[in-house]
């Protein structure tokens, strides 16, 4: 139950069996190997052993893995098959897997081909870009009829360039005239930003022309590597571009043909991942000339299996309980209803090695609160159905599997509260009865009561549920104190507050709501508890800490706001129901003609899908929040490091043993 | 039509203005979400989830507006008898969710936008980003509750 008990092990074996054993351990997937760096820093150890394996093996495999990763990414862009909603690992037998990946030479060839093709593709795209920019630069010069490579004749020089469009061609001409009268400026084209000019001048006037340029802000443009008139150049470049386009298309066809090898490449990727992990595990061993040493964690449950394994390889080994104060890797182990809710704990933080797993304690509250806030028979049924379908259709694992499964359970809780409050798509049954059959008795009767007509009752119950929830959280804290022998602290922090809160409620509401005479009992309970909270610190703390009780008493506001926070159960539950009712009402306004009925259905579908999505999200978020803030806030520290077993961390396939 | 009904409609209008806060909030979150997507398009689902969070204030406002309109019969086309006092009651009942909805919707949007930059770097921490957003939403829920209790205490004769 709860947090798995961990044992430590160390094992010394013969070097000849090291590789086989590491592979077997990966196959088992129940151990977490620990790095031995600290031992090597110890002189006594360092004199005897050195680190096993080498980094070269690991980095070689890693570079190969990253090559395949890129190739797979490239090919996935050309994969036209529909992508599934979730990325799932394919389940295959080890034998089938071995058969395919053992042919890695041919896969390697194909990988190289894809790399080459995609490399060329990149180059071609680069060239195309370059041509496109050149063309864009040439387009304004289209009407210029001289070859671009001609920058001078025997007696004249020719310059091309631009001036800013804020001046006019006349101004430019005038200014150039002033600088020298031996030049001819003509406008080729103009656009919003610039005027494109050609300047012909008599040789020997270069200095004067340059001064004129400065005057008008002339930017000279030199076309390199281009021959012929701009128009000719553009035509030639367009043709080149077409050729490149053709080539790109060919390569892309080639690449999409390669998609058929994608599966094998993915499998090879997984094989290399396993090899790399084995090499990494090897780095965690210590070795002498003929032996190796390995250390790690193993769940106590797996002790027998691991013992057998070590015996098989004729190793010397020891399994032992870790030190009480040692940080242990955390593995949650629950079953049934509780197991999927683990994901909520994991999303927050794993318990640290001194804490218990809170999941079994709060899982019912989580599901119950979710159901209360979503509270609708039909919505719950749809949620459960959707989740069950997803679990059936996809091979989900890990977090996403637990999350979907927890939603399936939450759907059941939602159905429960829907029945209690008499809500099925809000009041849809009633609306349909009234609209089509003129019969007002189609209403789904609540098993408990209708929160819309009696919200105060639900508000009260929300706070009661909340108080129980918080009290349990505080109870866990008290348990922790008592285990450490701090009885007084338990009274100060927890039990006094139980009395205080119950007393306050009785004092304020006991007489008028429950039974005459309870008010006075509540009053004395409150006073007694307050006295306890004031006095106890005198026995617990030293010095100035003795007065801390006065400050603690102020904590009553915190408890009250915590309990009021559970009013969201009512508010969000109402939101779901009222919005469904509004949707039904809007649909109900439609007439009873064919078009009216179609409109009725359209409004219902859109409205309820919307309501389902937004309130489903709300119920999930706030059910989590009530655990995280109100419940965990009372006792939970978290911060445990997860147990990371040394197993097959394959990305695309899930390997299983042959089963017949 | 009486002054009472006019006042009640005013209450519905105030309640519905909570949508403005949601608009601002969802907008702010959307801007941040687009930035995250630019880096990694695979996070679309996660970012959409976060972006939807500040949308709830608008829903709560809408809910109160509908409730008020339904109570005074403005949705069925058959206006009820509403005295001026009752009209004021209903007007005031729209204020908590209207005002708090605008402010908290906007604040939640900003909070979620920061949460989005968090998941850009650490996709695994989305739960924490959601919870930060939910902390802001608490106050909109409280306002909705007060609005609803006020609204619920009015019985039209």
Quick one: biggest sheet of chain B?
none
Overall shape of chain B? elongated
Overall radius of gyration of chain B: 18 Å
Order of helices and strands of chain B: HHHHHH
Instruction: Please identify the oligomeric state.
Output: heterodimer
> Mean pLDDT of chain B, rounded to whole units?
89
Distance between the termini of chain B: 16 Å
Kindly state the number of beta strands of chain B: 0
- Summing up helix and strand content along with how strands pair, one would put the structural category of chain A as alpha+beta
Plain-language structure description:
The complex is a heterodimer of chains A (660) and B (157). Chain A has 660 residues and is α+β, with helices and mostly antiparallel strands. Among the domains of chain A are: 152-221, 2-Layer Sandwich (Alpha-Beta Plaits); 339-634, no CATH class. Chain A is 62% helix and 10% strand. In chain A, the strands form 3 sheets. In chain A, strands 1, 2, 3, 9, 10 and 11 form a 6-stranded antiparallel beta sheet that branches. Chain A starts with 5 loop residues before the first strand and ends with a strand. By secondary structure, chain B is mainly α. Chain B has 6 helices and no strands. Chain B has helices at residues 3-16, 18-39, 44-52, 56-71, 84-121, 126-152. In chain B, helix 1 runs antiparallel to helix 4 (56-71) and helix 1 runs parallel beside helix 5 (84-121). Chain B is elongated. Chains A and B meet through helix 17, helix 22 and helix 23 of A and helix 4 and helix 6 of B.
